[in-house]
């Protein structure tokens, strides 16, 4: 991070980039090349079956309504009011001309469609949560009537999003929708976004806005990397000192139990799971401040040198702490899964500590500290498994040979992911990909194409192995991200990943994606998100205004 | 967005992605987070800055500014602005600011509640900052609070410094350390280029940008207002330029009133507005509303539908430019206008038969001569309007004769040699080559910006003195309202201001 070496590396990189000329990057072209072409009324991510026709229906904003079939519920009612605004809102005042965005085919208005009938087959009342097994499929028919059918509420929510994206406004100010058939279901069940709230604090407001944006991209798992080395903003009721001592500021830079509950409820209403990560035994510096004795003391020249390493796996108090702590976590986070981390455990500190060495000898681990790590993770997984929770762990845990529950999901983040996913699925575990989706790692220009083309099933394995891929996650690590840029840097750069995870594998043509992504970005801007430019010079009909 | 460009980017990002993740955080001492911050220290660093541990309290409720003999609306505006900037935005009190405690034992000497601002030169009337403005000031904190400046422009800089010296204790009390500041800028031209053609940037964000510039003591807003992709500047003489050339002629334009508002807002902050109308290249958007202005490109003996740079062979070109720049010179009061002149491609000129014919008639053996011919005529037009001009380096590289007070703007790599050459010719110069802040990369990428020094080239003292400053450039390929503030005022630029001010 702040090491001089890394700085230097960055400096060199920048220099190399700067040597290329400036605005020079735009060569001479035809007049018509500006701005980037945008589609109009096309959905992102692309549905499984999407058949628009040139026939157009008008949609009367004033008289539009949603109706439910037998299974109405508060989740649907909330969604109707939300999607009314998302469909018709934010267009701003009318201007006469939208250059190069004219709707080209001669518009034949077939009639007016002012009621969307939403038919959900399964009851959706009560405090139900989306799960890894939720059915998100739906069918949407536009013309001659407007009907959305879904097995579960979660599919209905996705279908409402699609509907809201099909409606567009003509230059006349009239809203219209093309006659369209949509039959849709996600390719992967776990379509996540990791947000790191430890390296920088991200205010609740921005977490909620992030959830809104996720729903607009049909992402369904908010992976909340809530604590890490730099800070511990999660307020634990059982161990209040963790945030009192470990947060950047224990009053202003924390998530109270009420905040956590609000985030989870907000996500539930959007059909998004909240997957909490409490990463151990490494990445825990901030834990040590409020829980003395938890971390390993590092030694130099026979004495404690003032530094701390990973959680001390040799003490019984460690496991009693973890029992109480994860018991609380399992109550506060209703999702079946909790993410237990387990990545990047450095052995240096363990190696230096005399009582750890003694423990190693007693246990017969020799000098194999991977065994010690395995020992820790095994005990942690038993604790969490005992709470009737499933868990997701970073790949190192399985690489180290730790025994995990059958429904464990292995989260692959390192390079060489193709081999790793081959190996992990051969062992029969479900797996998630993030290696190619570190969207915090920005570079100059249009850097979304490699995100788009990375396919999580593109590794050597049987069909059965491929089916163990439950999805993937875009990762927004927080070294350089706080309230100031969390929305603009995540959106729309997470959108290509959202399409990769939702749409059919053969939806991978960049040229076809560019105008749709351009529309999608502008749509997000119209809906109030500072979604940054990813395609070069151009404009949106409605530009972002804070 | 050519496929080639895409694949180069893809390779680049792949290389970057090979680096690992959050991994970058390894074992540290527990106190390593968060980064250490100073408290109540100014940026950019003043020439003389001598703080002492003695602390005065500053009572927000009773604080006031007073002027000496030379009071004026510019000062009154500044007082109300700086009152808010000094005391505002702290939000509700929280008990603890972890690792940000003010370390030395605080001895509160007394209270300082009046800042006396003494400006030696009258500041009433519609005065504008210029390249020659005096921005020096002295600020004494303790036992009284006095800001002295020769001109209003120095007083504005001093008020900014004052506002940065005040900080709030954990107790909620505002304090200021006893401090002596004697300050003046190293360079007179400390600019920020903003490109409003590749993406439109709403007026609101232009004004916010000006506010941010003032807080970094930057004093030139270089408005790269039009370029190939769009022509948002509404010309009264040639309304078709925007009607046809803007992304949207109603919503994506700067009206005369908008332009005037930006200039006035900048003036109040002591910032010059330097308009750039780049020709003869970078003019695609001009061609849409001004038929016949651009060179028609030919293939196989016929116009192929594409256009190149402005056509330098037609008399109508120069009558257009005369009228256009006459308007520009009236709308933009600054002495200087930026005339561009960069990156002129000869391909289209070479393809066009009447250009070829003209070359023959004029006896030009190279297209650089044709470019020189165009620029010479343009400079004469603009010079005739009693304006000075700034031009990109290519104009001088091509041997065009320019006015004595011309400023040559260096943007290409190999800038050390270029600035050596340009200053040897006796021209003033500006550096931007190392300050393309639109070029983001991952992580802490500001150190090369900070280290780049515009006088770090081979030359005599006299040559070095011809460096009038530099500009951070925020080109607009990937920048619109969504990120213009966060990407620009990313410590990034702040770094440049330090290099250019101190």
UniProtKB/TrEMBL annotation, chain A:
GO terms for biological process: carbohydrate metabolic process; ganglioside catabolic process; glycosaminoglycan metabolic process. The active site is at residue 344. It catalyses: Hydrolysis of terminal non-reducing N-acetyl-D-hexosamine residues in N-acetyl-beta-D-hexosaminides. Residues 1-24 form the signal peptide. Its EC number is 3.2.1.52. Keywords: Disulfide bond, Glycoprotein, Glycosidase, Hydrolase, Signal. GO terms for cellular component: lysosome; membrane. It comes from the Eukaryota. It holds the Pfam family Glycohydro_20b2. Disulfide bonds join 73-124, 298-349, 522-540. Residues 188-504 form the Glycoside hydrolase family 20 catalytic domain. It is an enzyme of class 3 (hydrolase). GO terms for molecular function: beta-N-acetylhexosaminidase activity. Residues 43-166 form the Beta-hexosaminidase eukaryotic type N-terminal domain. Belongs to the glycosyl hydrolase 20 family. This is Beta-hexosaminidase. It comes from Candidula unifasciata.
TrEMBL record, chain B:
It comes from the Eukaryota. Its EC number is 3.2.1.52. InterPro entries: Beta_hexosaminidase_sua/sub, GH, Glyco_hydro_20_cat, Hex-like_dom2, HEX_eukaryotic_N. Residues 1-24 form the signal peptide. Keywords: Glycoprotein, Glycosidase, Hydrolase, Signal. The active site is at residue 343. Residues 42-165 form the Beta-hexosaminidase eukaryotic type N-terminal domain. It catalyses: Hydrolysis of terminal non-reducing N-acetyl-D-hexosamine residues in N-acetyl-beta-D-hexosaminides. GO terms for molecular function: beta-N-acetylhexosaminidase activity. It holds the Pfam family Glyco_hydro_20. Residues 187-489 form the Glycoside hydrolase family 20 catalytic domain. GO terms for cellular component: lysosome; membrane. GO terms for biological process: carbohydrate metabolic process; ganglioside catabolic process; glycosaminoglycan metabolic process. Belongs to the glycosyl hydrolase 20 family. This is beta-N-acetylhexosaminidase. It comes from Candidula unifasciata.
């Amino acid at each position: 991070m702040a090491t001089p070496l890394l700085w230097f590396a960055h400096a060199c990189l920048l220099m190399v980039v700067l040597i290329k000329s400036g605005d020079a990057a735009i060569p001479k072209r035809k007049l018509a090349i500006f701005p980037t072409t945008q589609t109009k009324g096309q959905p992102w991510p692309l549905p499984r079956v999407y058949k628009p026709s040139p026939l157009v229906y008008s949609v009367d904003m004033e008289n539009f309504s949603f109706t439910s079939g037998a299974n109405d519920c508060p989740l649907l009612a909330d969604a109707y009011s939300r999607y009314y605004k998302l469909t018709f809102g934010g267009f701003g005042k009318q201007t006469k001309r939208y250059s190069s965005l004219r709707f080209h085919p001669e518009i034949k208005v077939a009639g007016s469609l002012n009621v969307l009938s939403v038919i959900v087959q399964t009851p959706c009342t009560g405090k139900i949560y989306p799960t890894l097994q939720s059915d998100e499929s739906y069918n949407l028919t536009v013309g001659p009537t407007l009907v959305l059918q879904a097995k579960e509420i979660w599919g209905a929510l996705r279908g409402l999003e699609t509907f809201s994206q099909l409606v567009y406004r003509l230059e006349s100010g009239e809203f219209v929708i093309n006659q369209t058939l949509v039959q849709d279901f996600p390719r992967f069940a776990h379509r996540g976004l990791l947000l790191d709230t430890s390296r920088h604090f991200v205010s609740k407001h921005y977490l909620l806005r992030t959830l809104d944006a996720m729903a607009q991209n049909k992402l369904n798992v908010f992976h909340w990397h809530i604590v890490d080395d730099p800070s511990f903003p999660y307020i634990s009721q059982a161990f209040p000192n963790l945030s009192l001592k470990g947060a950047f500021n224990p009053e202003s830079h924390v998530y109270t139990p009420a905040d956590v509950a609000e985030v989870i409820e907000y996500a539930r209403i959007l059909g998004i799971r909240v997957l909490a990560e409490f990463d151990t035994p490494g990445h825990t510096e901030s834990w040590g401040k409020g829980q003395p004795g938890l971390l390993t003391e590092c030694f130099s020249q026979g004495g404690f040198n003032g530094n701390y390493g990973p959680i001390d796996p040799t003490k019984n108090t460690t496991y009693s702490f973890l029992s109480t702590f994860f018991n609380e976590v399992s109550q506060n986070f209703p999702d079946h899964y909790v993410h237990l981390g387990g990545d990047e455990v450095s052995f240096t500190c363990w190696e230096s500590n005399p009582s750890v060495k003694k423990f190693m000898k007693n246990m017969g681990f020799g000098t194999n500290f991977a065994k010690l790590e395995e020992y820790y993770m095994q005990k942690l997984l038993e604790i969490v498994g005992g709470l009737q929770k499933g868990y997701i762990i970073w790949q190192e845990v399985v690489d180290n040979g730790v025994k995990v529950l059958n429904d464990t999901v292995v989260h692959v983040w390192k390079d060489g992911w193709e081999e790793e996913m081959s190996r992990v699925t051969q062992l029969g575990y479900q797996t998630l990909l993030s290696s190619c989706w570190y969207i915090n790692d920005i570079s100059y220009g249009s850097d979304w194409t490699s995100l788009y083309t990375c396919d999580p099933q593109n590794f050597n394995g049987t069909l059965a192995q491929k089916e163990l891929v439950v999805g993937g996650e875009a990762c927004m690590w927080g070294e350089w991200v706080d309230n100031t840029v969390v929305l603009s840097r995540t959106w729309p750069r997470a959108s290509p990943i959202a399409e990769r995870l939702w749409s059919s594998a053969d939806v991978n043509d960049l040229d076809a994606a560019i105008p749709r992504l351009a529309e999608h970005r502008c749509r997000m801007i119209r809906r109030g998100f500072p979604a940054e430019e990813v395609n070069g010079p151009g404009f949106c009909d409605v530009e972002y205004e804070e």
